[in-house]
Specification:
This is Butirosin biosynthesis protein H N-terminal domain-containing protein. It comes from Acrocarpospora pleiomorpha. Residues 49-186 form the Butirosin biosynthesis protein H N-terminal domain. The structure is a single chain. The protein is an alpha+beta fold. It has helices spanning 2-18, 22-30, 50-61, 68-74, 106-116, 129-141, 152-155, 196-204, 223-237, 248-256, 266-269, 276-287, 298-312, 317-337, 340-360, 365-380, 388-414, and strands spanning 37-39, 42-44, 78-87, 92-100, 120-124, 146-148, 172-178, 181-185, 192-194, 213-217. It folds into two domains: 1-34 and 91-104 and 222-415, no CATH class; 38-65 and 120-217, Cathepsin B, Chain A (Alpha-Beta Complex), CATH 3.90.70. The chain is built from 17 helices and ten strands. The strands form three sheets. The protein has a six-stranded antiparallel beta sheet with strand order 5-10-6-7-8-9, sandwiched between helices. It has a two-stranded antiparallel ribbon with strand order 1-2. A two-stranded antiparallel sheet has the order 3-4.
Length: 415
């Protein structure tokens, strides 16, 4: 038991220090993990990004041999998006970053990706809580795993504060139920059970995807065609001029950080230095794989490019190398935003929550409580704004690198 606790502490420390995912940090310390845990016949394979992991794990449990990087590529690969939220109810600031194709439309991405892969599926939505609960029960009792979209506060296992009620969540798999509740696959490697009533409340909380339920029927995949179409989708989407949902979003963010006149300019939003710690923590969480959403995903895409090259015969190796370099640029931005020397404890607590959920099926409530108490205190503190120029320059470099890489991708797949 002592050895296990020591290993957990070492994994958490590495996650906090490097921003790595649980799986990567554990592999560096003790090597590859043994085969997946099995719960009621369901294999808990883990995963890197909630959306692509949800599809991959349903397909793999259905007998399909497919990797998460290829599913991610088939879904259109990378995206780009940035929003700075200001919340008056708790005087907080939060940065939302979109790194997946169509990041703002989770259900649309799920259905597009399944269709592209040749996977038949049913999608259901209903305003009625009773009907939604009955449908989920019927599907699980029939042995069919489902993708749902629970609100993170309402679902409970993240131990999020009440101030985040209704702020949304990400896709997870409901794969079985019993009289005690519903068992979920959120890339966890140990069983995660949630009472039925909490699942129902969490599914019904967010209006834009209220009671969403997608039921895939795994079968033979149209993988080469899906990967080819996904690469084209990625190249076309990220070549658009939109500064909200394509690569120019990074350029806009870079400029906004230094713009003292714009309504969302950082010198104006953070004029008194307060609220910046929360914005920086959400930036770090969004960019690094240690967070809830899988990070900036440029490394996942690079792995997908390597696998796509073997399937399609396209010369994608150099592009894969470049996107791994770009992943490093994002890591540098995250480190600059939330330095370990200043915010080490916030990073440690974030890593502890993620590690405990993956390894034990339950996020640490003590870590969650301390994290949000420290974050609230940090948000009230005056923070030096001299890091803005560095962040802006890093973002400008990322924008240039990704723009050049996507132009190269377009030339490769249209040659």
């Amino acid at each position: 038991m002592t050895d296990k606790k020591q290993l957990k502490a070492r994994i958490r420390a590495r996650m906090a220090k490097t921003g790595e995912s649980y799986t990567t940090a554990r592999r560096h310390l003790v090597g590859a993990q043994d085969g997946p845990a099995v719960d009621g016949g369901w294999r808990l394979n883990g995963g890197r990004h909630p959306d692509s992991a949800a599809i991959t794990n349903i397909l793999r449990n259905g007998g399909a041999e497919v990797s998460e990087p290829l599913v991610f590529v088939a879904g259109g690969g990378l995206g780009a998006g940035y929003i700075l939220w200001e919340f008056k109810h708790d005087d907080s600031r939060h940065v939302t970053l979109g790194f997946r194709n169509q990041w703002q439309y989770p259900q649309r991405w799920l259905e597009k990706t399944l269709t592209r892969l040749g996977v038949k599926h049913d999608a259901h939505t209903t305003g009625g809580a009773k009907a939604a609960s009955q449908r989920l029960t019927a599907e699980l009792d029939a042995g069919r795993a489902c993708v749902i979209m629970p609100d993170r506060y309402q679902i409970g296992y993240w131990n999020a504060p009440a101030s985040l009620d209704g702020y949304g969540g990400h896709p997870v798999i409901a794969y079985r139920r019993d009289e005690t509740g519903v068992f979920l696959d959120d890339r966890n490697l140990a069983p995660l059970r949630v009472p039925q009533e909490k699942v129902d409340a969490a599914r019904a909380r967010v209006g834009s995807y209220k009671n969403m339920l997608v039921v895939p029927y795994p079968g033979e995949l149209t993988l080469p065609e899906a990967v080819r179409d996904g690469l084209r989708d990625c190249a076309e989407h990220l070549s658009l001029p939109s500064d909200s949902f394509s690569l120019p979003a990074w350029r806009k963010w870079s400029r906004t950080i230094l713009d003292g006149k714009a309504a969302k300019g950082w010198p104006k939003v953070f004029a008194d230095g307060r609220g910046l710690a929360g914005a920086m923590l959400s930036t770090w969480e969004g960019i690094e794989p240690v967070g809830q959403d899988g990070g900036n995903l440029r490394d996942l895409f690079a792995d997908g490019l390597d696998e796509a090259a073997a399937i399609l015969g396209f010369p994608l190796g150099e592009l894969a190398t470049e996107f791994r370099r770009i992943h490093g640029l994002w890591h540098g931005l995250a480190e600059a935003a939330l330095p370990d020397s200043e915010y080490g404890r916030l990073r440690e607590l974030t890593a502890e929550i993620r590690e405990s959920l993956i390894a034990e099926g339950a996020a640490s409530p003590d870590a969650s409580r301390e994290l949000w108490e420290l974050r609230a205190a940090a948000d009230k503190a005056v923070v030096d704004l001299d890091r803005f120029a560095d962040l802006s320059e890093r973002l400008a470099n990322i924008f240039e690198a990704e723009t050049a890489a996507i132009a190269r991708l377009r030339s490769v797949i249209t040659a």
